[in-house]
From TrEMBL:
Family: Belongs to the RutC family.
NCBIfam families: Rid family detoxifying hydrolase (TIGR00004)
Signal sequence region: none
Record protein name field: 2-iminobutanoate/2-iminopropanoate deaminase
GO cellular component: cytosol; mitochondrion
Transmembrane regions listed in the UniProt entry: none
GO molecular function, one term: deaminase activity
Length: 137
């Protein structure tokens, strides 16, 4: 049986902050896009935006949108997200921001309070999305 080649493409955009470690913004494997954790970093300054978890969430989701677009995807094609919060009490505020980007047919999601996030962040999100035509039933 001949082995079938799987396409693996590194996704990177200058519209979103560069990774702060040895990883990529995202990796596309065939039609599945794996997005690394995204922080609320302003791409122009390289620093976290000020104002707390909800403000960081908005910036992180904007950053994530640029990566999705670079890969040929969008928020509607996100199938799973994982949110990391410094303080789980920020859950409701973050949900309000989240709903600005995910309007219906929400992705599956997990949310965790964690001990510490990179750069002293209060919010981080990672995602799995698909690229190509999607039909929701």
């Amino acid at each position: 049986m001949a082995s079938q080649k799987i396409i693996r493409k590194i996704i990177s955009t200058s519209l979103s902050p560069k990774p702060i470690g040895p990883y990529n913004q995202a990796v596309l494997v065939d039609h599945t896009l794996y997005l690394s954790g995204s922080l609320g970093v302003d791409v122009k300054t390289g620093k976290l935006v000020a104002g707390g978890a909800a403000v960081e969430a908005r910036q992180a989701l904007i950053n994530m949108g640029h990566i999705l677009k670079e890969a040929g995807s969008n928020y509607d094609k996100v199938v799973k997200t994982t949110i990391f919060l410094q303080d789980i009490n920020e859950f409701n505020d973050v949900n309000e921001v989240y709903k600005e980007f995910f309007k219906e047919n929400y992705p599956a999601r997990s949310t965790f309070q964690v001990g510490k996030l990179p750069m002293g962040a209060k919010f981080e999100i990672e995602a799995i999305a698909v690229v190509g035509e999607v039909k929701t039933i």
